[in-house]
Amino acid sequence: MQRLWSWNNAWFRWSVASLVVLLVGSMLVGFVWLPSVHSDFTAKSLWDSICRAAGVPTTWSDANTPEKRPQSTSVVLERSMTRVSENDQVGRGATLALNCTMCHGAQGMSTSNAPNLAGQYPEVVIKQLQDYKGGKRSNAVMEQLASSLSNQDIEDLAAYYAYLPKARTAPTTYDEQLPALVRVGDPLRNIAPCISCHGGVDQKIGTPWIEGMPKDYLIAQLEAFKSGVRRNDAQSQMRNMVRAMTRDEIAELASFYAGKAGAGEHK
Predict the structure, then answer these.
(1) Does the keyword Transport apply (predicted)?
(2) Would the N or C end of the chain have less CB density within 10 A of its end CB?
């Protein structure tokens, strides 16, 4: 009588062969075919494919990888930044803002695809100016202008723009007619709904008001986050959200938020 686990047993040989075929097939599907169907993945080697499927970095020691780069922003958001404490701040900020009118408009509403600043949350303006000043966000004009501003100047500018009339519609809140990414995101791609941070009811501190922003500006910033060119989002929040989005989805989001402009606003 043949032993059950003997190689001479035909049933045992067939079982082992089937297991090997199943294992190889599963590895090809999980580590090669599935990663290859993602448009944002370029396989340099089988190791890249395996790491992509397993969700781990391809290298642990390269100091130039995003995980090892310097902190993307050094600004610590505090609740005190959300409040404008003195009327004098607004006056000083209005004087400083004369240098900003060419791009951001005389009343904080841009006609040149720069962001609208009228009514923007003060901590948002403070953070972005500090990031420009510290080289954490890149723009030749803004870096030059911000480099000459003191911390008090930055707070005054933020107070002024927050004081300006909010020429904008009601905040975007949950509605069945909203685009899917705005309303519910895409959990399978780890994309949170836009309104979870940019909503008007539970606005997260430091999250900008984006309704009515110029469409081209929104597209440019989302593309910059997607590619990693812009890196001043704390804990890579925006980069993680946008990385999995397609360009059509980015254009849809930009069109939606630009279309939320109120009467008289520039798109």
Answers:
(1) yes
(2) N
Q: 79-163 has which CATH code?
A: 1.10.760.10
Question: What are the tens digits of pLDDT across the range 145-178?
Answer: 999 999 999 999 999 999 998 655 567 777 778 9
How far, in whole angstroms, is CA 179 from its chain's centroid?
17
CA 103 to CA 110: how far, in whole Å? 6
DSSP H helices, the chain, are: 10-28, 34-36, 46-54, 87-96, 101-104, 122-133, 140-147, 151-163, 180-183, 195-198, 215-227, 237-242, 247-258
Q: Enter the tokens of residue 93.
A: 């900020």
Nearest to residue 227, comparing CAs of 206, 250, 204? Answer: 250
Can you give the pTM of this predicted structure?
A: 0.70
